[in-house]
Amino acid sequence: MKLKLIVGLSNPINLYYNTRHNIGSWYIKFLAKKYKKNLIKNKKYCFYYIDVKIGDYYSKLVIPDTYMNVNGTIIYNITNFYKIYSNEMLIVHDDLDLDTGIARFKFNHKNSTHNGIKSIYKSFGAKCIFNTLRIGIGRPKLNKNINSYLLNNPSPKEEILIKKTITKCIKCTDVLIKKNKDHAMNILHKK
Q: Residues forming the annotated binding site?
């Protein structure tokens, strides 16, 4: 599968990097590290990026450096500038509805309650279709405030599990690009 753009949804990195809601940016940083690349800041358009060759294709790795609810504007501008179709994107984000340690690909994504995903639809239009990689962070226990939960760091135990999950996701992204989505899903979705 050809992915020209892989985006890790994020709030401003300097303020929120280690939080649950910035799992997408964790993923991009881990992926850049795998390819021994350092992200470059585009100050004019508020995002970090780097180009990496995965298999036979170059993919642009991006972390928006703005608030989650406006990530879509940055992504839209990038796709317009580089002539990337929405179905050539993989959007990586946290997911409250998946337990910590679980991740899922979703192809031809069409809706979500995630603010970053809503922002993409707002910028691209409701008919936009793209691919996602959802990384589970679980829900807070005892009905704690969701926003507080998202904007706090995971426990040390959760962090270890999240990092293991991201490592597995990166291997599966390689399979997705180099082989096919069915093979990647079989590996990622296997318990």
A: 16, 67, 69, 115
State the CATH number of the domain containing residue 68: 3.40.50.1470
156-186 confidence digits (pLDDT tens): 999 999 999 999 999 999 999 999 999 999 9
Q: Pairing mode, if any, of strands 89-95 and 130-136?
A: parallel
Number of domains the chain is built from: 1
> Where is the binding site for tRNA, in residues?
16, 67, 69, 115
pLDDT at 143 over 70: no
Identify which of 107, 112, 129 has the alpha carbon closest to the alpha carbon of residue 188. Answer: 107
CA angle 86, 46, 51 (to 5 degrees): 55
Q: Report pLDDT digits (tens) over 74-90.
A: 999 999 999 999 999 99
- Which of 113, 65, 57 has its CA nearest to residue 90? 57
Whether 21 is catalytic: yes
Print the domain residue range for 138.
Answer: 5-189
The span from the CA of 128 to the CA of 122, in Å, is: 10
